[in-house]
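Protein 1 of 2
SEQ + STRUCT:
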Amino acid sequence: MGITLLPDGAGKYVLGLDHACPRCLEPLTEPHMLLHCQNYQAKRDQLQAALHSH
């Protein structure tokens, strides 16, 4: 599953994170998710687009 954007009321989103990276099977920490794991590239792009659109 990875990252899920969850609606949080007033047009904001919060991140729902799994506890383990399903692709790498490493502990899913923010540095791993944001810097190392290609599994989340599309999700990061979507999140950045959502943040910059408001």
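Protein 2 of 2
SEQ + STRUCT:
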Amino acid sequence: MPPNLTGYYRFVSQKNMEDYLQALNISMPLRKIALLLKPDKEIDHQGNHMIVKTLSTFRNYVLEFEVGVEFEEDLSIMDGRKCQTIVTWEEEQLVCVQKGEVPNRGWRHWLEGENLYLVHILHLPLQEPESNKRPGDPRKEHKQPEEDPAASEASPRGGCQDLLRPWEAGAAVSPVGSRGRCSLQWEPEIR
């Protein structure tokens, strides 16, 4: 049975947020603002119905959904996009898959002890290094980007390499690397 995530959580830390926002093509001014924020989370979890509030001094974002039911998510407050979203449980982790203008995007939320963790994932298309390309060369071969060893430090659990899978069959995507991944941590607030 999945854990109940209901609670109010104070922001503790984030890793690699700027690179992740840049990979989403978020403008530099908005990236700089986002990096200054220390958003809290308030979660109301009643059975399959969830309300997840991300609260900050700049903007608040409310995500309300039924687990396992696809819905249209309006991300205009964050990056000006809309996407089709589905949130499901995988063991004790809440997993979100977002399909839309930015493919292969999503996140995972889970508790470890009393702390709440979130990892945003963006599987980036593989790109052949410029040094291997020649004008007019139709080759489809791709080289794997080097893995960033810091990318597996999502939490004390570590080793979160395959948090989300590519959703488009046959899509050439990179393994989770530093640019397509960021992690955040919150601790519970005692009220």
